[in-house]
Amino acid sequence: MTANSGGAAATIDGKWSVTIHGPTGPQETTLRLETVDGVLGGDQSAMGQVETLQEVSFDGRTGEIAWINKIKKPLPITLKFRGTIEGNTMSGKVNAAIMGSFPFTAVKL
Prior knowledge:
Blueprint: H1 9-12, E1 14-22, E2 25-36, E3 39-46, E4 49-52, E5 54-59, E6 64-71, E7 77-86, E8 89-95, E9 101-108
Antiparallel strand pairs: 1-2, 1-9, 2-3, 3-4, 5-6, 6-7, 7-8, 8-9
């Protein structure tokens, strides 16, 4: 995990409603970001599962954020998110390994 830069923790910490725009239609997840002792982390939940985020990074100067979510069901897959936060919105791409890359959007709750 990477420490925040730019003191932007207060603007990104909290819950986000994330929509992945995949080929089977929109998939909704909830992202929780939390800074503890200067280190950004959190979890992501969908379909009754909660997974701890891995390799979370945020650049307070550019708004760029990235994290990895390793889900176990319905099939084990590593989702690599990379995007940009602008105020209370976020957008970017999620790489779903052999399934391809899809856009995602998010709104802070």
